[in-house]
Amino acid sequence: MAAITTATSKRFQFAFINITDPKDLTHADNQRTIRRHAWDAGRPHKRRRRRNDTFNLSDFHPSATDYASIVPVQQVNNDHGRQKDEGPKKYLEEAERIPPNQYLSTDCLRPLGAGRGLDPLAPFPIPSNSRIVQLIDFAQKDSGQMHIIWISVVMSDRSAFQLSLAHSALLMARQDDSEIQENDEALKYYTNALNSVNNRLCDPIDNTSEGIIGAILGFCCYECAVGKNFSGLQMHLDGLERVVQRRGGIETLQSPPLRILTNWLDVTGSMLLDTHPRFSVPKEFVHVPNATQQSPGLTASIQAWNDRYPSFKDISSVLVSIASLSSEVNRAATNPQFWRDELFIGVRLNPVAHQLLMLPRFNLPEQIETGLDEGLLIREIIRLTSMVFLGLLKRQFRIQFDGISKHGRRLAQLLTAYSFDWYSFTNLHLWALIISTIVEEDRGVLVARIVDVISNTGAADWHDALLMIKDIAWVDEVATHVIYDIGSEISFHLKNGY
Torsion angle of alpha carbons 300, 302, 308, 310, nearest 10°? Predict the structure, then answer.
């Protein structure tokens, strides 16, 4: 057997082979040893580097459905050997022939809860399945700021989560039939949540928890979505008030998203029901209006109002706040991104609405009677006009549940059924008439009143009338399309007589 020793110099390495029999040199093992040493040491060479392959990755979004995987249920168990030879085009062709409700969500391939709300790692509060993932994915198609906050609340409580599923199931059903009020799947999740909340309310620890408050907020959202069940909305808001008061008030809520949502739904519900808000405005939302933003016309009208009707001067501070809000909106209105900022509603518009809703209510008869206090009637018209104006702003932000239908109908009734002296407050009168005309479908009588007011006040034309209402509060974007038609109609009657 040969033995190898190595000697090293600065330039070369030498290998010495010791053998006892010359025939050993031809032995296969010795030959292999010699060749390996010659390759490794005797013949210096450059080693070949492994080439790195780079792949460009890009998102792939199939057109078959907005919320489904490209792998439909029927294809999951297909023969693997056949599938690997077929390209994405074949998958898409088959996918387009399968109803969307039979698709598996791609979220089954990622950790539960990933990417949802403000805590992307939060798991689902209840055991999940493909349908639940599909409903939550559908809910997340709304990328609004308030919806993201709501999803964060939903992911933290099992009852609120079930209500979110009920809401998604209802909205998905309405894609096929917009007239649907409720459906079986939505009612199933709603009933599960209701039973859960009823049991938790009997728990002395859980009955005032932030989770139970989030669940009650979910009931309020669902009743708003149903649309016509305002009695149910009022019941849940009353229950929310009792639970929060038992905790010690809205300021005791530690979760910022929960405080924002509580204030949001409190103001939204109060606007729909025309009731006093149940909670105070969170201190971080309190805003003092800038008095310098008032126009001279508004200042003069407020002074005249306070002098003539000192008992009803509470409406004056509301007009100042609305004027300040209007000025702030006008400064940003040309930026399309501004109208997607839902937090502006929560932080700036809702506190003004809260101030308006806190005004005392006076029982006015449905049918206007003689002998009613003129100041009381004008105050109510201004209050309702303010409600409709704030509703128009919310509508421009694409916020649902603005209460315009209810308040606009009552406003038009008061403006058309009774006449009194608005001489000192002509701009307020025109403001109320034009706002009412924007939202009222049958506006013939209102247009006649506007023509009459413009003719009797010495205003030159419709343009002058618009300048007068802009002295109070106005945002062009809230009535871009309809205001042109109204102006053309009024200008026609001013020129040709009514």
Answer: -150
